[in-house]
Amino acid sequence: MSESPPDSTPHSEVGVARQPSRLNIEDLSPSLSAGRYPVKRIVGALVEVSANIFKEGHEQLAARILYRPANERRWRQAPLFYEYNPDRWFGRFRADQLGRWQYTVEAWTDHFGTWRRDLNSRLEVGQNVSLELLEGALLLEQAARRLKGETAERILGAARQLADTQKSLDFRLAAAFSEDILHTVSAPLLEEEVTRYTPVHELVVDRERAGFAAWYELFPRSQSQRRSVHGTFADVIRRLPELAALGFDVVYLPPIHPIGHSHRKGKNNATVCEPGDVGSPWAIGSELGGHTAIHPELGTLEDFRHLVRTAGDLGLEIALDYALQFSPDHPWTKEHPEWFFIRPDGSIRHAENPPKKYEDIVPPNLWCSERKALWNACKDVFEFWIEQGVRTFRVDNPHTKPFPFWEWIIREVQRDHPDVIFLSEAFTRPIRMRALAKLGFTQSYSYFTWKNHKRELREYLTELTTTEMSEYYRPNFFTNTPDILHEYLQRGGRPAFRIRLLLAATLSPVYGIYSGFELCENQPRHPGSEEYLDSEKYEIRTRNWDAPGNIKHDIARLNRIRRENPALHSFSNLTFLETNNHEVLAYRKVSPGNQLMVVVNLDPHRRHDAHLHLPLSELGLSEDEAFDVEDLLSGERYRWRGATNFVRLDPSERVGHLFRLAHPR
Amino acid sequence: MSESPPDSTPHSEVGVARQPSRLNIEDLSPSLSAGRYPVKRIVGALVEVSANIFKEGHEQLAARILYRPANERRWRQAPLFYEYNPDRWFGRFRADQLGRWQYTVEAWTDHFGTWRRDLNSRLEVGQNVSLELLEGALLLEQAARRLKGETAERILGAARQLADTQKSLDFRLAAAFSEDILHTVSAPLLEEEVTRYTPVHELVVDRERAGFAAWYELFPRSQSQRRSVHGTFADVIRRLPELAALGFDVVYLPPIHPIGHSHRKGKNNATVCEPGDVGSPWAIGSELGGHTAIHPELGTLEDFRHLVRTAGDLGLEIALDYALQFSPDHPWTKEHPEWFFIRPDGSIRHAENPPKKYEDIVPPNLWCSERKALWNACKDVFEFWIEQGVRTFRVDNPHTKPFPFWEWIIREVQRDHPDVIFLSEAFTRPIRMRALAKLGFTQSYSYFTWKNHKRELREYLTELTTTEMSEYYRPNFFTNTPDILHEYLQRGGRPAFRIRLLLAATLSPVYGIYSGFELCENQPRHPGSEEYLDSEKYEIRTRNWDAPGNIKHDIARLNRIRRENPALHSFSNLTFLETNNHEVLAYRKVSPGNQLMVVVNLDPHRRHDAHLHLPLSELGLSEDEAFDVEDLLSGERYRWRGATNFVRLDPSERVGHLFRLAHPR
């Protein structure tokens, strides 16, 4: 069994140039899983593209980026160049609109440019070039055949000039070295000589708030200021001005739908509820409606729309929870039992993780035979809330639903609504969390909550900011959630809350707090638990938002600093600085004209001193030069000199510095 | 424009599971460019395979490797398991025959295993499992439908046993927990529930000598012992016993074909030759024949076959040069001018790199319109010499010919002759050298010759042994070639030759010398040149192979040590050791039961002392334990203790130690 030499060239299928291929294009960047998944950017970003482009021998190559919004037919073009290594080519394009984009690169041999370069080398050593001039004329004639009208005539004229042995060498060479001629014929001579990289890669371009936002999570039913009275959307509206003043961008609400009665959970997750218990909002659906209905005690759909509008007027955005789980009372369980798991006795299977049972909810069967209808119904839920003005969804436990389902539904929703943001609330193993981010989630919860020591923070942030993850994983650094009150907060008192706030707000451009954090609430259900005592998940909690010891001043100040300093708007512009104290973490955030250095005492209990080592050359400073830094948290200014500077942080007074270099180079 | 939910799942094309996909398979290893290029192994190797395999939720998965020689239809299977991380699966298979192999992995949900695990959890806490038993029975009934005859009956029987409410719980559970039942139904229940990774990956399995061999390069015409008399194959045959005794495995001959007359190069690459000048053997072809002819002064085809047979009897193998370049006198230039570049005046273009001209050779036009015939003719050259018993080819300057041509021709030749070895003689930029190795060359020349300082050697060897390159790039560490006499050898005298020999022979399992090296020949054509004075490329050189100062004792000893120590048969089992002297390089080579440590003084001019730091725990030694090492070069034994040991190396006496740990753990 033998194969003939190919008419074109040996075939190739993935990650390489399409056929016929007379040169190689490999290692395209950016690229995830050989183009299987899109990389992510924020609108307006310059997308830096590079690739290995090479062939045998010494000929000159030319190459360009092809790119387009996915819904356009015509490719846009941007040039590729090499720098010192002729095999690695670089270029860039601006992603100036939301949505999915495509890009690839193509390359070809620059025959005329090669000929001209070689001609020049020959002339420099005085070789006879009469044959070369004829060959140049042939190249131009070939090029002219692809061109039309006046342009073709002009190139043909140059060919004749090159070939005219009656004329002087200088006259003939003028045609060879005309920049206009070179420019006109530098495009590929023959379509089939162009090598295009396949597969075409994808890019998802999100709006600014996908990459920079401060989130605040609250339970609407807890927003009444009257004890044990069920809060309403009107109560939430009353809180919005304060949240806007604190500098938040997104207000995220747990599910706002009717709550089931069957097996409703009682206070502190009791398996049997007491009369009057309000139940978990994640047990979605009752005879009053399902995922597109509103819990009547919160208000009406019109009230909700009013909330969304009022928030918008204040520069705030309402994010909803999207939880694909169902109370046994949810209308779909009656209307579409085929969308659920039916047991041999005809009952619908409730959620469980054997031997644990979650009888207040039932999961959908997303691979059921009626899955087309089910998936479309799930999509319609998104469409419904988008219709009400919602553009951000926090998706509950996506790792318990099929990954292909999410890939499909996110692509579908974003096709018509490229401004929609999906936050993945998957707390699971790393590979699955990364997979959800890769397949399309705009943002992802992270392990930040559990990274409290210096080495942990450095390792985790280094992974997030310096590996391939930075192409697709946008973490949302929540300091706490209704499910996670970390021991560090339980034991560290107010300083611990201030420390974690400073870290979250400066390490990640997207961060959030769950309400109560600003009051330093830190009572676990029991020792060793990360659950809150008297958790809002199961009951109404009213609070005095101005209670003594609150850290709202910190929050407002940090959110203002974040808005004013572009270095805090990006994620991977992070580098760690060395200190000689393992409780003192220091890092640098840099953007053009904005140099920040953050120093944090990670120990909420004790004062720590440290020598901070600055990379002077990277800061543009010489060894003996004085320079000014301003602590944006306190307003104090310091004059420093040299690479090593002393800091002292007493957490009872201040937990860290956020220095800005006064005159950044 | 909207898409319906897929009947199966969202499509995917590369680097991921084929459809329909209910679970994810990603990041298959080993993998080069998403499967575009094959990885390489030596026959008999265990191929370690791993992949990320995961889906939503908590179900148990099962997975296996599929693998087969590329010419077999039926997949072989090997199991995959996970260790601590349930999302990363590992397995292995043995590549027990030469040639191209294919492999991929597939995975599915283990429904019955999941059900059994959950049943067990429920039983442990005393839950009622009556519905679960009926569900288990349904799973077994489904499985039985896929099975036949007695097996199907047995599974149906178990299903009935599980479902039989008249029987005791214990009796029914016996069917649930039967290992035989589990084993029988653990294969995927439904074909469409199996997810298979695509694209199928390839593996090239080479014979042992592709991965472990000592090469010796000689010019046959220089092998006569009579001054200026043209050597013959008979002269080469007379040298074979000595080369066998020195421990070489491969004897590589520059081209043995008729040499052209037109523009023949004179001594020392003079552009005009003198009468009697023999010319460069790389100017292939004359009226006496081309690539399948033998230069008459060397002998006949039968003489050559005799040489190949005699070498074989001595355990030696003859490697030929494959140089796709043509003297203007080559028969193909007359028979097939269409295979060359024709100039406007009808002449054939000679080789050049403007303004340099190489008028004694013409390159083929491998993209000419008659390329099918040309490529086949090029392949026939290989086939001709394979017919004569040759199985190893050193390919001259492959980076000047189209890469797709090499990919095609290597695959074609190896399809019928999987034992053929191709060595790429590309000294060019890194990306192109790597590309040639990726597309199929068995071995590659390397930058080793130019890496003489400690940091250079560490950096280069670290790249070769610890990056993706170790999957496809097998360097052949030549100490010198007819084109490369490095300044280090020119200036370092005999110690320099001994140092480079020790490095080449112990750093790489495949290494070589070009004859004259053993005599420490070190005269460049002129200062600053890497060319030899009076190079054999252009004239006959007779030598006294026993001249004083020769290092044949070193060569014989090192080649024996190499054969006796398995640690020197692998490449990426290298780790560097720390010394406190930047002229003293130390490294470790390890294989089961064989622990070697090499210490080399890189300075040929001066004695150096160093403290060598040993990684005791990796050696299986405690801090205060005495251990014996034997210097395999000198036979001396030393008793050492602790992590730091002193070495003194005077290059006029010895250039290095090659220690073997006496009792490796």
Features:
homodimer, 665 residues, alpha/beta, ten-stranded mixed sheet, eight-stranded parallel sheet, 28 strands, 16 helices
The percent range for helix content of chain A is 25-40%
Largest sheet of chain A: 10 strands, mixed
Content-based structural category of chain A: alpha/beta
Q: Separation of termini of chain A?
A: 67 Å
Largest protein interface, residues of each chain? A-B, 77 and 76 residues
* Poorly predicted tracts of residues of chain A: 7-20
Instruction: Provide the gyration radius of chain A in Å.
Output: 31 Å
Oligomerization category of the chains in this entry: homodimer
Helical run tally of chain A: 16
- Strand percentage of chain A lies at 15-25%
Average pLDDT rating of chain A? 94
Bulk shape of chain A:
globular
According to DSSP, the number of beta strands of chain A is 28
Account of the 3D structure:
With 665 residues, chain A is α/β, with parallel strands linked by helices. In chain A, 28% of the residues lie in helices and 23% in strands. In chain A, strands 1, 2, 3, 4, 5, 6, 7, 8, 9 and 10 form a ten-stranded mixed β-sheet that branches. In chain A, strands 18-17-16-13-12-11-20-19 form an eight-stranded parallel β-sheet. An eight-stranded antiparallel β-sheet of chain A has the order 26-25-28-23-22-21-24-27, sandwiched between helices. In chain A, 45% of the residues are buried. The model of chain A is unreliable at 7-20 (pLDDT under 50). Chains A and B meet through strand 2, helix 1, helix 2, helix 10 and helix 11 of A and strand 2, helix 1, helix 2, helix 10 and helix 11 of B.
